[in-house]
Specification:
This protein is mainly alpha-helical and 139 residues long. It contains 5 helices and 2 strands.
């Protein structure tokens, strides 16, 4: 069986967020709970595989391949970034002017939306490759 920690470790290599770092240093249990929430929300995104897990034991019901772990970590990244984009979108209407780099809030929102689309496209490509691999193995 694969522990949630294996997915968390890879996810944390993908993202850099001072808020996550601060939460981890202030309250590690809250940090782990936050990561679990992101992971549990992300499992349904991995549409190629029916993945079951035990949330209480924080482990999957089977041993996942490194590729499955990578896809789940990418699903977590997508979920995490999407949440951050929602926060920016909520603030965008109230923000006027430019940030420290001289970019308008509309430009920042547009760039973040483009990055989210790129993350989703990459995730879809990874899942498609996994599906093709499974079809070839089934032949």
């Amino acid at each position: 069986m694969t522990s949630f920690d294996e997915v968390y470790d890879l996810f944390l290599n993908y993202v850099s967020d001072y808020k996550l770092d601060k939460l981890a240093s202030l309250d590690y249990n809250a940090f782990k709970s936050y990561l679990k929430g992101i992971l549990v929300s992300s499992v349904p995104i991995y549409s190629n595989k029916d993945i079951s897990y035990n949330e209480e034991n924080e482990e999957f019901s089977e041993t996942l391949s490194i590729y499955d772990i990578r896809i789940l970590a990418s699903c977590m990244e997508y979920t995490w970034f999407s949440h951050g984009l929602n926060e920016v979108s909520a603030l965008a209407g109230r923000l006027k002017g430019r940030d420290i780099n001289g970019e308008s809030s509309a430009t920042i929102l547009k760039n973040k939306s483009a990055h989210l689309n790129s993350l989703r496209e990459n995730l879809d490509n990874m899942m498609m490759r996994e599906q093709i691999k499974g079809m070839k193995e089934g032949m």
